[in-house]
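Recall the central idea of this unit: under ordinary conditions, the amino acid sequence of a chain determines the structure it adopts. In this exercise we apply that idea directly, starting from the sequence alone.
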Amino acid sequence: MKAVVSVHGAKTALGGQRLVCSAKVRSQQPGRLSVVQCTAQDTASSERLRLNNLSPQDGSRRKKTRKGRGYGAGQGGSAGFGMRGQKSRSGSGIRPGFEGGQTPLYRKLPKLKGIAGGMGHGLPDFVTINVRDLNKFAGEGGEVSLELLKEKKILNLSGSQDKLPLKILGTGELTGPVTVHAAAFSESARSKIEAAGGKAVEVPQKPKWTRKAHEAAKAAAEESS
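Accordingly, the structure predicted from this sequence is:
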């Protein structure tokens, strides 16, 4: 049984240096040193790190072992890969997530709803505003549109929301008549606007592109030409 004892901080006569000693002590002869190794280190360079003296710790960086390069490498005949099988052959092996043909974990777990699951169900379809926010425009000749709400900084839109149409919701009360131009209205919002003497003008939206409608329009254009 051997124990290693390290002694630090012993300064030498050479100014600015210290001795770092390591000694091995045999338990059979306590107090007797068998091997003593001492090295002198500069305190200025060891205590203060600089960009020019940064280096990894000894043993933290090791060269990658080259597998399957003969018996002289000390890894045997199969280098730890076995005799047969897909993993013993050269090439990329198996892809990440492959579990030998059984149903992998990422297919066992349920899909999340909405945008978290990769679908557009969780994304908004409209920019919404309530009836109570339209009282600023209430009065004779008052009109509200999406462009006016952006200009008055009532709606601060950015990114993908800037391209969405406007929808009016029915929270709150309307104090005066106002003409509202929007893509959609809730039933309560439409009734409150009309009850206050205003008008709910539905703005037509951009039609959704579908292959069936596209082919029909293309066929109609060919027939007319």
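The first helix runs from residue 43 to 47.
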